[in-house]
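Morning run. Coffee first, then this:
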Amino acid sequence: MKEQWSSKLGFILASAGAAIGLGALWRFPYLTGTNGGGAFFLLFIFFTVLIGMPLLIAEFVIGRGSKREAVSAYKKLSATGLWKWIGHFGVVGCFLLLTFYAVIGGWVLTYTFLSLTGSILEPGRDYELLFGSIVGSPLISAVGLIVFIGLNVVVLSFGIKNGIERVNKYLMPLLFVFLLIIIVRGLTLDGAMEGVKFFLSPDFFSITTAGTLEALGQSFFSLAVGFSCMVTYSSYLGNEQSLPRSAGSIVILNLLVSLLAGLAVFPAVFAFNLSPDSGPNLLFVVLPTVFEQLPFGGLFLSLFLLLFFFATITSSFSLMEIMISAFTQNKKHKRNRVAIISGILVVIAGIPAALSNNVLADVLILDRTVFDLTDFFVSNIMLPLGCLFIALFVGFKVKKSLLIEQYRMESGNLSGTANLWYLLMQTIVPLVIVIVFIFGLF
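And here it is:
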Protein backbone atom coordinates (compact mmCIF):
# COMPACT_ATOMS: atom_id res chain seq x y z
CA MET A 1 0.00 0.00 0.00
CA LYS A 2 1.31 3.47 -0.93
CA GLU A 3 2.46 5.51 2.08
CA GLN A 4 0.46 8.66 2.85
CA TRP A 5 0.69 11.77 5.01
CA SER A 6 -1.03 11.22 8.34
CA SER A 7 -2.93 14.53 8.26
CA LYS A 8 -3.62 17.69 6.28
CA LEU A 9 -1.47 19.68 8.71
CA GLY A 10 1.39 17.23 8.26
CA PHE A 11 1.25 17.64 4.48
CA ILE A 12 1.05 21.45 4.63
CA LEU A 13 3.92 21.74 7.12
CA ALA A 14 6.04 19.30 5.10
CA SER A 15 5.29 21.20 1.89
CA ALA A 16 5.91 24.50 3.65
CA GLY A 17 9.14 23.02 4.98
CA ALA A 18 10.14 22.22 1.40
CA ALA A 19 9.48 25.84 0.46
CA ILE A 20 10.52 27.68 3.63
CA GLY A 21 14.24 27.15 3.94
CA LEU A 22 17.16 28.79 2.27
CA GLY A 23 14.77 30.19 -0.35
CA ALA A 24 12.97 32.44 2.14
CA LEU A 25 15.54 32.89 4.91
CA TRP A 26 18.79 33.16 2.96
CA ARG A 27 18.20 33.69 -0.74
CA PHE A 28 15.28 36.13 -0.51
CA PRO A 29 16.99 38.75 1.73
CA TYR A 30 20.16 38.96 -0.35
CA LEU A 31 18.29 39.04 -3.69
CA THR A 32 16.04 41.78 -2.30
CA GLY A 33 19.11 43.68 -1.10
CA THR A 34 20.87 43.49 -4.45
CA ASN A 35 17.74 44.42 -6.43
CA GLY A 36 16.61 47.59 -4.72
CA GLY A 37 14.44 46.40 -1.84
CA GLY A 38 10.69 47.08 -1.92
CA ALA A 39 10.17 46.90 -5.68
CA PHE A 40 11.73 43.44 -5.81
CA PHE A 41 9.52 42.33 -2.90
CA LEU A 42 6.38 43.48 -4.71
CA LEU A 43 7.44 41.72 -7.91
CA PHE A 44 8.11 38.60 -5.89
CA ILE A 45 4.61 38.74 -4.35
CA PHE A 46 3.08 39.31 -7.80
CA PHE A 47 4.87 36.37 -9.39
CA THR A 48 4.21 34.11 -6.39
CA VAL A 49 0.45 34.69 -6.45
CA LEU A 50 -0.13 34.93 -10.21
CA ILE A 51 2.39 32.34 -11.43
CA GLY A 52 3.78 30.35 -8.49
CA MET A 53 0.48 29.41 -6.84
CA PRO A 54 -1.21 28.10 -10.03
CA LEU A 55 1.93 26.06 -10.73
CA LEU A 56 1.90 24.70 -7.19
CA ILE A 57 -1.71 23.60 -7.65
CA ALA A 58 -0.73 22.07 -11.01
CA GLU A 59 1.98 19.94 -9.38
CA PHE A 60 -0.50 18.89 -6.68
CA VAL A 61 -3.04 17.89 -9.33
CA ILE A 62 -0.48 15.86 -11.28
CA GLY A 63 0.75 14.08 -8.15
CA ARG A 64 -2.58 13.20 -6.56
CA GLY A 65 -4.27 12.65 -9.91
CA SER A 66 -1.71 10.01 -10.87
CA LYS A 67 -0.87 8.70 -7.37
CA ARG A 68 2.68 8.31 -8.66
CA GLU A 69 6.05 9.90 -7.95
CA ALA A 70 7.34 12.47 -10.45
CA VAL A 71 8.85 10.23 -13.14
CA SER A 72 5.96 7.72 -13.20
CA ALA A 73 3.29 10.45 -12.89
CA TYR A 74 4.03 12.03 -16.25
CA LYS A 75 4.33 8.62 -17.89
CA LYS A 76 0.92 7.62 -16.52
CA LEU A 77 -0.80 10.83 -17.64
CA SER A 78 1.02 10.95 -20.99
CA ALA A 79 2.34 7.61 -22.17
CA THR A 80 3.65 9.00 -25.45
CA GLY A 81 5.80 11.90 -26.59
CA LEU A 82 8.39 14.00 -24.80
CA TRP A 83 6.05 14.93 -21.93
CA LYS A 84 7.06 11.86 -19.95
CA TRP A 85 10.57 13.33 -19.66
CA ILE A 86 9.41 16.26 -17.47
CA GLY A 87 9.83 14.06 -14.41
CA HIS A 88 13.36 13.12 -15.44
CA PHE A 89 14.11 16.83 -15.97
CA GLY A 90 12.95 17.47 -12.41
CA VAL A 91 15.16 14.72 -10.97
CA VAL A 92 18.22 16.14 -12.76
CA GLY A 93 17.30 19.67 -11.66
CA CYS A 94 16.95 18.62 -8.01
CA PHE A 95 20.26 16.79 -8.19
CA LEU A 96 22.08 19.87 -9.53
CA LEU A 97 20.30 22.14 -7.06
CA LEU A 98 21.39 19.92 -4.18
CA THR A 99 25.05 20.13 -5.24
CA PHE A 100 25.19 23.79 -4.19
CA TYR A 101 22.23 23.90 -1.76
CA ALA A 102 23.94 21.29 0.43
CA VAL A 103 27.10 23.39 0.49
CA ILE A 104 25.11 26.28 2.00
CA GLY A 105 23.45 23.79 4.34
CA GLY A 106 26.94 22.82 5.46
CA TRP A 107 27.75 26.47 6.21
CA VAL A 108 24.56 26.73 8.30
CA LEU A 109 25.47 23.50 10.09
CA THR A 110 28.98 24.83 10.80
CA TYR A 111 27.60 28.10 12.18
CA THR A 112 25.15 26.14 14.33
CA PHE A 113 27.93 23.98 15.78
CA LEU A 114 30.21 26.98 16.45
CA SER A 115 27.36 28.86 18.10
CA LEU A 116 26.46 25.93 20.35
CA THR A 117 30.10 25.79 21.49
CA GLY A 118 30.16 29.57 22.11
CA SER A 119 32.71 30.25 19.38
CA ILE A 120 30.93 32.96 17.35
CA LEU A 121 29.87 35.97 19.40
CA GLU A 122 32.70 38.24 20.51
CA PRO A 123 32.49 42.03 21.12
CA GLY A 124 33.93 43.92 18.18
CA ARG A 125 34.37 40.83 16.03
CA ASP A 126 34.42 41.17 12.24
CA TYR A 127 31.67 38.71 11.32
CA GLU A 128 32.25 39.21 7.61
CA LEU A 129 35.83 38.04 8.11
CA LEU A 130 34.55 35.05 10.13
CA PHE A 131 32.22 34.02 7.31
CA GLY A 132 35.06 34.35 4.81
CA SER A 133 37.28 32.09 6.91
CA ILE A 134 34.59 29.40 7.10
CA VAL A 135 33.70 29.30 3.40
CA GLY A 136 37.38 29.72 2.56
CA SER A 137 38.31 26.48 4.31
CA PRO A 138 38.23 23.44 1.97
CA LEU A 139 37.99 21.05 4.92
CA ILE A 140 35.09 22.83 6.66
CA SER A 141 33.14 23.22 3.39
CA ALA A 142 33.63 19.59 2.36
CA VAL A 143 32.84 18.15 5.81
CA GLY A 144 29.77 20.39 6.10
CA LEU A 145 28.52 19.12 2.74
CA ILE A 146 29.05 15.47 3.72
CA VAL A 147 27.36 15.78 7.12
CA PHE A 148 24.41 17.74 5.70
CA ILE A 149 23.71 15.12 3.03
CA GLY A 150 24.30 12.34 5.58
CA LEU A 151 21.54 13.75 7.80
CA ASN A 152 19.22 13.86 4.79
CA VAL A 153 19.91 10.21 4.11
CA VAL A 154 19.16 9.24 7.72
CA VAL A 155 15.80 11.09 7.91
CA LEU A 156 14.62 10.06 4.44
CA SER A 157 15.41 6.42 5.18
CA PHE A 158 12.52 6.48 7.67
CA GLY A 159 10.03 7.43 4.95
CA ILE A 160 7.23 10.00 4.75
CA LYS A 161 5.32 9.87 8.06
CA ASN A 162 8.11 8.79 10.39
CA GLY A 163 10.80 10.88 8.71
CA ILE A 164 9.80 14.02 6.80
CA GLU A 165 6.44 14.71 8.44
CA ARG A 166 7.57 14.15 12.02
CA VAL A 167 10.54 16.51 11.73
CA ASN A 168 8.55 19.31 10.08
CA LYS A 169 5.58 19.17 12.44
CA TYR A 170 7.56 20.25 15.49
CA LEU A 171 10.26 22.49 14.08
CA MET A 172 8.52 24.77 11.57
CA PRO A 173 6.31 26.57 14.16
CA LEU A 174 9.36 27.28 16.34
CA LEU A 175 11.06 29.06 13.45
CA PHE A 176 8.30 31.69 13.39
CA VAL A 177 8.78 32.36 17.10
CA PHE A 178 12.48 33.08 16.74
CA LEU A 179 12.02 35.20 13.65
CA LEU A 180 9.64 37.37 15.66
CA ILE A 181 12.23 37.69 18.47
CA ILE A 182 14.84 38.95 16.01
CA ILE A 183 12.37 41.39 14.43
CA VAL A 184 11.32 42.89 17.77
CA ARG A 185 14.95 43.39 18.77
CA GLY A 186 15.98 44.71 15.34
CA LEU A 187 13.21 47.30 15.23
CA THR A 188 14.38 48.83 18.51
CA LEU A 189 17.83 49.64 17.08
CA ASP A 190 18.74 53.20 16.06
CA GLY A 191 18.36 53.61 12.30
CA ALA A 192 16.20 50.48 11.95
CA MET A 193 13.37 52.38 10.25
CA GLU A 194 15.62 53.11 7.28
CA GLY A 195 15.85 49.38 6.76
CA VAL A 196 12.06 49.01 6.95
CA LYS A 197 11.70 51.82 4.42
CA PHE A 198 14.21 50.17 2.08
CA PHE A 199 12.37 46.86 2.31
CA LEU A 200 8.76 48.05 2.10
CA SER A 201 8.96 51.23 -0.02
CA PRO A 202 9.25 50.28 -3.69
CA ASP A 203 11.59 52.12 -6.06
CA PHE A 204 10.71 50.68 -9.47
CA PHE A 205 13.59 52.50 -11.16
CA SER A 206 15.94 50.15 -9.32
CA ILE A 207 14.51 47.04 -11.03
CA THR A 208 16.32 45.65 -14.05
CA THR A 209 15.30 42.87 -16.45
CA ALA A 210 17.79 40.60 -14.68
CA GLY A 211 16.17 41.53 -11.35
CA THR A 212 12.73 40.73 -12.76
CA LEU A 213 13.95 37.30 -13.84
CA GLU A 214 15.41 36.77 -10.36
CA ALA A 215 12.06 37.72 -8.78
CA LEU A 216 10.31 35.17 -11.00
CA GLY A 217 12.99 32.56 -10.24
CA GLN A 218 12.69 33.27 -6.53
CA SER A 219 8.91 32.71 -6.66
CA PHE A 220 9.62 29.25 -8.12
CA PHE A 221 12.53 28.55 -5.78
CA SER A 222 10.63 29.56 -2.66
CA LEU A 223 7.57 27.41 -3.50
CA ALA A 224 9.69 24.43 -4.61
CA VAL A 225 7.91 24.29 -7.98
CA GLY A 226 9.40 23.55 -11.39
CA PHE A 227 11.23 20.34 -10.59
CA SER A 228 8.14 18.29 -9.64
CA CYS A 229 9.06 17.99 -5.95
CA MET A 230 5.44 18.80 -5.10
CA VAL A 231 4.25 16.17 -7.58
CA THR A 232 6.06 13.61 -5.46
CA TYR A 233 4.81 15.07 -2.15
CA SER A 234 1.18 15.25 -3.32
CA SER A 235 1.28 11.66 -4.61
CA TYR A 236 1.20 10.68 -0.91
CA LEU A 237 -1.94 12.80 -0.39
CA GLY A 238 -5.42 11.42 0.22
CA ASN A 239 -8.61 12.54 -1.56
CA GLU A 240 -10.07 14.20 1.52
CA GLN A 241 -7.93 17.34 1.15
CA SER A 242 -8.54 20.44 -0.96
CA LEU A 243 -5.61 21.15 -3.28
CA PRO A 244 -6.26 24.90 -3.77
CA ARG A 245 -6.72 25.42 -0.03
CA SER A 246 -3.49 23.54 0.70
CA ALA A 247 -1.65 25.55 -1.95
CA GLY A 248 -3.08 28.80 -0.56
CA SER A 249 -1.91 27.92 2.96
CA ILE A 250 1.61 27.18 1.70
CA VAL A 251 1.76 30.43 -0.33
CA ILE A 252 0.59 32.49 2.66
CA LEU A 253 3.16 30.84 4.95
CA ASN A 254 5.87 31.38 2.36
CA LEU A 255 5.07 35.07 1.85
CA LEU A 256 4.79 35.57 5.60
CA VAL A 257 8.21 34.04 6.24
CA SER A 258 9.72 36.12 3.40
CA LEU A 259 8.23 39.25 4.98
CA LEU A 260 9.54 38.27 8.42
CA ALA A 261 12.97 37.44 6.98
CA GLY A 262 13.17 40.88 5.40
CA LEU A 263 12.08 42.58 8.62
CA ALA A 264 14.62 40.50 10.55
CA VAL A 265 17.52 41.41 8.27
CA PHE A 266 17.17 44.91 6.78
CA PRO A 267 16.50 46.98 9.94
CA ALA A 268 19.68 45.49 11.42
CA VAL A 269 21.61 46.02 8.16
CA PHE A 270 20.88 49.75 8.20
CA ALA A 271 21.22 50.09 11.99
CA PHE A 272 24.79 48.73 11.83
CA ASN A 273 25.68 50.52 8.56
CA LEU A 274 26.07 47.29 6.63
CA SER A 275 25.51 47.14 2.88
CA PRO A 276 22.14 45.64 1.84
CA ASP A 277 23.64 44.50 -1.48
CA SER A 278 26.49 42.51 0.09
CA GLY A 279 25.11 39.30 -1.45
CA PRO A 280 24.90 35.71 -0.20
CA ASN A 281 26.86 36.34 3.01
CA LEU A 282 24.31 38.92 4.22
CA LEU A 283 22.48 36.66 6.67
CA PHE A 284 25.66 35.13 8.09
CA VAL A 285 26.97 38.62 8.91
CA VAL A 286 23.74 40.25 10.12
CA LEU A 287 22.52 37.54 12.51
CA PRO A 288 25.61 37.50 14.77
CA THR A 289 25.71 41.32 14.72
CA VAL A 290 22.12 41.52 16.00
CA PHE A 291 22.41 38.76 18.61
CA GLU A 292 25.60 40.26 20.01
CA GLN A 293 23.42 43.19 21.20
CA LEU A 294 20.90 40.92 22.97
CA PRO A 295 20.99 39.74 26.58
CA PHE A 296 21.76 36.00 26.42
CA GLY A 297 22.58 36.63 22.76
CA GLY A 298 24.69 33.49 22.48
CA LEU A 299 21.77 31.32 23.62
CA PHE A 300 19.31 32.99 21.25
CA LEU A 301 21.75 32.79 18.33
CA SER A 302 22.28 29.08 18.98
CA LEU A 303 18.55 28.38 19.11
CA PHE A 304 17.84 30.40 15.99
CA LEU A 305 20.68 28.84 14.02
CA LEU A 306 19.50 25.40 15.10
CA LEU A 307 16.03 26.16 13.80
CA PHE A 308 17.46 27.82 10.68
CA PHE A 309 19.41 24.64 10.07
CA PHE A 310 16.27 22.53 10.45
CA ALA A 311 14.42 24.82 8.02
CA THR A 312 17.30 24.40 5.59
CA ILE A 313 17.36 20.63 5.84
CA THR A 314 13.58 20.24 5.59
CA SER A 315 13.77 22.02 2.22
CA SER A 316 16.44 19.61 1.06
CA PHE A 317 14.22 16.64 1.98
CA SER A 318 11.94 17.40 -0.98
CA LEU A 319 14.92 17.62 -3.33
CA MET A 320 16.25 14.23 -2.30
CA GLU A 321 12.83 12.62 -1.99
CA ILE A 322 12.09 13.11 -5.69
CA MET A 323 15.36 11.31 -6.49
CA ILE A 324 14.76 8.48 -4.02
CA SER A 325 11.11 7.94 -4.96
CA ALA A 326 11.98 7.89 -8.67
CA PHE A 327 14.18 4.84 -8.13
CA THR A 328 12.19 3.07 -5.43
CA GLN A 329 8.65 3.75 -6.71
CA ASN A 330 7.33 3.11 -3.19
CA LYS A 331 9.20 -0.18 -2.71
CA LYS A 332 10.19 0.29 0.93
CA HIS A 333 12.85 -2.40 0.91
CA LYS A 334 14.83 -0.35 -1.61
CA ARG A 335 14.57 3.03 0.16
CA ASN A 336 17.59 2.75 2.47
CA ARG A 337 19.94 1.57 -0.26
CA VAL A 338 18.76 4.17 -2.80
CA ALA A 339 18.97 6.95 -0.18
CA ILE A 340 22.60 6.07 0.57
CA ILE A 341 23.58 5.84 -3.11
CA SER A 342 21.82 9.14 -3.87
CA GLY A 343 23.62 10.81 -0.98
CA ILE A 344 27.03 9.58 -2.15
CA LEU A 345 26.40 10.84 -5.71
CA VAL A 346 25.30 14.29 -4.48
CA VAL A 347 28.40 14.59 -2.29
CA ILE A 348 30.72 13.68 -5.16
CA ALA A 349 29.01 16.14 -7.52
CA GLY A 350 28.88 18.83 -4.81
CA ILE A 351 32.60 18.86 -4.00
CA PRO A 352 33.48 21.35 -6.81
CA ALA A 353 30.84 23.77 -5.48
CA ALA A 354 32.14 23.28 -1.92
CA LEU A 355 35.64 24.22 -3.10
CA SER A 356 34.50 27.23 -5.18
CA ASN A 357 35.35 29.73 -2.45
CA ASN A 358 38.77 28.29 -1.70
CA VAL A 359 40.77 25.79 -3.77
CA LEU A 360 38.78 26.35 -6.97
CA ALA A 361 38.14 30.08 -6.46
CA ASP A 362 40.18 30.95 -9.56
CA VAL A 363 38.46 28.36 -11.76
CA LEU A 364 35.88 30.43 -13.63
CA ILE A 365 33.40 29.30 -16.27
CA LEU A 366 31.64 32.17 -18.05
CA ASP A 367 33.15 34.46 -15.38
CA ARG A 368 31.48 32.45 -12.62
CA THR A 369 32.74 29.95 -10.07
CA VAL A 370 31.30 26.43 -10.18
CA PHE A 371 29.02 27.34 -7.25
CA ASP A 372 27.73 30.56 -8.87
CA LEU A 373 27.36 28.99 -12.32
CA THR A 374 25.34 26.06 -10.94
CA ASP A 375 23.15 28.45 -8.94
CA PHE A 376 22.52 30.65 -11.99
CA PHE A 377 21.88 27.74 -14.36
CA VAL A 378 19.48 25.96 -12.00
CA SER A 379 17.64 29.01 -10.61
CA ASN A 380 17.43 31.22 -13.71
CA ILE A 381 17.29 28.70 -16.56
CA MET A 382 16.25 25.20 -15.45
CA LEU A 383 13.57 26.29 -12.94
CA PRO A 384 11.72 28.60 -15.38
CA LEU A 385 11.95 25.93 -18.10
CA GLY A 386 10.63 23.28 -15.70
CA CYS A 387 7.72 25.54 -14.76
CA LEU A 388 7.01 26.21 -18.44
CA PHE A 389 7.00 22.49 -19.24
CA ILE A 390 4.56 21.80 -16.37
CA ALA A 391 2.28 24.69 -17.40
CA LEU A 392 2.11 23.45 -21.00
CA PHE A 393 1.61 19.86 -19.85
CA VAL A 394 -1.34 20.78 -17.63
CA GLY A 395 -2.77 23.34 -20.04
CA PHE A 396 -2.63 21.32 -23.23
CA LYS A 397 -1.88 17.64 -22.61
CA VAL A 398 -3.73 16.30 -19.56
CA LYS A 399 -7.47 15.70 -19.79
CA LYS A 400 -9.30 18.75 -18.49
CA SER A 401 -11.88 16.56 -16.72
CA LEU A 402 -9.18 14.95 -14.55
CA LEU A 403 -7.65 18.34 -13.67
CA ILE A 404 -10.97 19.93 -12.75
CA GLU A 405 -12.02 16.88 -10.71
CA GLN A 406 -8.82 17.00 -8.65
CA TYR A 407 -9.06 20.79 -8.22
CA ARG A 408 -12.68 20.71 -7.03
CA MET A 409 -12.30 17.74 -4.68
CA GLU A 410 -13.14 18.90 -1.11
CA SER A 411 -12.69 22.54 -2.24
CA GLY A 412 -16.15 23.80 -1.29
CA ASN A 413 -16.71 27.41 -2.38
CA LEU A 414 -13.33 27.40 -4.18
CA SER A 415 -14.51 24.80 -6.70
CA GLY A 416 -15.92 27.59 -8.89
CA THR A 417 -12.41 28.91 -9.52
CA ALA A 418 -11.30 25.70 -11.25
CA ASN A 419 -11.92 26.99 -14.79
CA LEU A 420 -10.13 30.26 -14.00
CA TRP A 421 -7.10 28.31 -12.77
CA TYR A 422 -7.16 26.15 -15.91
CA LEU A 423 -7.34 29.28 -18.10
CA LEU A 424 -4.35 30.77 -16.27
CA MET A 425 -2.37 27.59 -16.92
CA GLN A 426 -3.16 27.82 -20.64
CA THR A 427 -2.47 31.53 -21.10
CA ILE A 428 -1.01 33.88 -18.49
CA VAL A 429 1.33 31.47 -16.70
CA PRO A 430 3.27 30.16 -19.73
CA LEU A 431 3.21 33.60 -21.43
CA VAL A 432 4.73 35.42 -18.43
CA ILE A 433 7.37 32.73 -17.96
CA VAL A 434 8.43 32.96 -21.63
CA ILE A 435 8.50 36.78 -21.70
CA VAL A 436 10.48 37.20 -18.49
CA PHE A 437 12.81 34.31 -19.38
CA ILE A 438 13.65 35.76 -22.83
CA PHE A 439 14.16 39.31 -21.53
CA GLY A 440 16.32 38.00 -18.71
CA LEU A 441 18.60 36.13 -21.11
CA PHE A 442 18.97 38.82 -23.75
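The chain has one domain: 8-441. Good start to the day.
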